[in-house]
Amino acid sequence: MVKGARAIAATMVMGLFAAGCQAPGGPPSWGTSVVKETDGFGDYYETVINVPAPTGAPRAFSCAGPWGPSTSDTVLKGIFGGGRAVQATDVLRPDGTTGPGTIVLPNDPQLRVSVAWADGFAYAGPIRFNFTEQSAWSVNGVRIGSTIADLERANGKPFRLVGFGGDAGGVVTDWQGGALANLPGGCNLTVQLAISALAPASAQAKVVGPKVFLSTDRNVRALKPTVGRFWVMYN
Question: What keywords were assigned to this record (predicted)?
Answer without folding.
Answer: Signal
